[in-house]
Amino acid sequence: MLLVGVMLWRSAVFGQRSWMYGSESEKPNRCKQYGPFLLQQLAACLIVADPLRHVLFDIGLWAGCSNNRTYTRINTTDAFPNSCYDSSYQYRCTVPCCVPMWLPSPGVPAGDAYEWFPPQSQNPTLATLKPDGTVWLPTNYSSDPYVVWTAPAVLWELPATGVEEGAAHTTKGPMTDADCKYGANDETGYCFLVNESLPLAEKLQQLPLRDAGKPFDAVTNPHECNCNQCTPQETMSHLAPLGVVFTIVFTYVGFALLACAVAWNANIVDKLKNLQKTWRRLRGQTAPM
To answer: Beta strand pairing status for 114-117 and 168-169?
Structure first.
């Protein structure tokens, strides 16, 4: 883009476009002189918009729709809620974002045991640091290694300053029982995605499907919650509104404008007209008497 811009700028300032639209008694037509260069600059901005969106997401300046402080879809029944429309995600999410939340174990004295809900497809168990400094292992603990967290908290996906990635936060969410199908966790303010009164096996079956539009399949479409995956189908039909704007509108309009700018700089329309006149003249010269 930079090299093409330099070429068109040079043509406007020092090349053919610097004099062809004016004379000693007439000022040049600035629109025709600088038009191709300015059109190319607009095209360049549109073409690099989508790569720039990727970069801003990668360096953390434009958050995606996940388990973070800006655009959150923590335990929402809609995998891509309206609040995520202006996030940096290119696609509509179909994989729900399930975040484990602290809750005291039922029937256990306060401070003695903790559980994390809902059960996770990737990491169904989390250990908890007790107030006395010992570690409490959850009911379904199976083997090492395990991750230890301090309750009560919700687990952030992104790191805070001076804290390792995945650190817990204690800011309560905005949800109430009226907002949640299975009620809200009073300790954290986020929804439960499953019925907490059911046994673990049944709660796992209540977790959302990887693709809600397809039937359950243990291999291709299991019950899954994964905040790090938006959708397994990154296709045009799954584009979010922002994805349509950046991927289709900005990119392809930008390339169309770039082609117009280069063609304009080459006076392609005038050359085609001259070609047509030359063709007619040559055919007239060679036509039989």
So the answer is: unpaired
Distance from C-alpha of 261 to C-alpha of 278, rounded to nearest angstrom: 25
Per DSSP bridges, beta strands 148-150 and 127-129 are parallel
pLDDT in tens, 269-278: 777 778 877 8
The residues, any chain, with a CB within 8 Å of residue 76's CB and separated by 6 or more, are 96, 97, 191
Q: In total, how many domains does the chain have? A: 2
Tokens of 44: 């360049």
Our separate counts of H helices and E strands in the chain read 7, 7
Q: How far apart are CA 89 and CA 78, in angstroms?
A: 15
Whether residues 80 and 137 fall in one domain: no
Q: Are residues 111 and 87 in the same domain?
A: no
Using 50, 70 and 90 to split pLDDT, how confident is the model at 166?
Answer: very low
Q: What is the pTM of this model?
A: 0.64
Please indicate, yes or no, whether residues 192 and 109 belong to a single structural domain of this protein: yes
Q: Is 92 inside a domain boundary? A: yes
Statement: residue 123 has pLDDT above 60: no
Tokens, residue 42? 């607009």
Number of Cβ atoms within 10 Å of the Cβ of 202: 11
Q: List, for residues 227-266, the tens digit of each pLDDT value.
A: 777 888 888 988 999 999 999 999 999 999 999 999 998 8
Structural domain includes residue 49:
yes
How far is 261 from 254, CA to CA, in rounded Å? 10
Q: What domain range is 133 assigned to?
A: 99-207
Q: Are residues 153 and 194 located together in one domain of the fold? A: yes
Maximum C-alpha span of the chain: 112
Q: In this structure, are 234 and 194 located in the same domain?
A: no
Kind plus residue range of the DSSP H or E element containing 69: none
**Nearest-5° angle of CA 193, CA 199, CA 205?**
50
Give the count of alpha carbons within 13 A of 114, CB side only. Answer: 22
| CA 220 remoteness from chain centre | 23
